[in-house]
Amino acid sequence: MHGTPDSRWSRHPDDGLAVAARVRLLAVDRPGCGRSDHDPGRTLGTVADDLAAACARLGITSVGVLAWSAGAPYAVALAARQPDLVSAVGLAAPLVAVTAYATPEVAEVAGPGRRLFAEMAAEMAPDEVPAEVAPYGSCACLALSSAA
């Protein structure tokens, strides 16, 4: 699960690396990322359900999930909602909730850029944040990329 404003294109472009590691890689754009449609009604749970449905459609019965930054809450939601599907979760530099920045220790280590983003996000309606972040995103197509 990619961070923000990343998309499925933030994976390594050489599918041969995944093949050599015997990994089937699925890099999926979340709603509003890449060229996927913005879904103002989405929640962590609805995205997790979409991911589980994609796995079912592909005949995948067990996945390990790697997520970084803003992708982390979606990976955790998938694992929580689909414990029979998710065999492992790895989180790299997971994003904390905007409300965590109210804790002085979190705000201090976050640095000025993340504090500014958290302040901006806290002042905006949830459906306004993607429109503000979108110009910084890459233009990718909604798709599943896999290496068997």
Description:
A two-stranded parallel ribbon has the order 1-2. The protein has helices spanning 15-20, 44-57, 72-81, 104-123, 129-133, and strands spanning 63-69, 86-94. The protein is globular, with a radius of gyration of 16 Å. The protein is an alpha+beta fold and 148 residues long. The longest helix is centred in the last third of the chain and has 20 residues, at 104-123. The protein contains 5 helices and 2 strands; from the N terminus they run ααβαβαα. It has a domain at 8-96. Helix 2 packs across helix 3 (72-81).
Write the SSE topology.
Layout: H1 15-20, H2 44-57, E1 63-69, H3 72-81, E2 86-94, H4 104-123, H5 129-133
Shape call: globular
Residues in helix, %: 25-40%
**What Rg do the Cα atoms give?**
16 Å
The count of DSSP E runs of length 2 or more, i.e. the number of strands, is 2
- Please provide the ordered H/E string of secondary-structure elements: HHEHEHH
Structural class: alpha+beta
Spatial separation of the terminal alpha carbons: 18 Å
Low-pLDDT regions: 136-148
Biggest sheet: strands side by side, in what order? 1-2
Largest sheet: 2 strands, parallel
Average pLDDT over all residues: 80
Strand fraction? 5-15%
Report the total helices: 5
What distinguishing features does this structure have?
two-stranded parallel ribbon; 5 helices; disordered C terminus; 2 strands; alpha+beta; 148 residues
